[in-house]
Amino acid sequence: xxxxxxPEFKRISKLYKGETKxxxxxxxxxxxxxxxxxxxxxADGLTIPQSILPYKNGAFVAQGSELFFAxxxx
Length: 74
What we know:
The chain is mostly beta strands. It is built from 1 helix and 5 strands.
């Protein structure tokens, strides 16, 4: 069976082409040492985010050839 016809190759190829969403997510936790409630901010549907740089109320995320800013979700 040629490798391009393998089901796993097709699944991964669709992830990197952006045809399907990934299962990875980023959680940004704040107020860790405060008695107030803990804020959990989520960026999900990612495919292997490679770099994460927290900035103000979110984070810059590098994923594949993309760089984007994921802000706090409410």
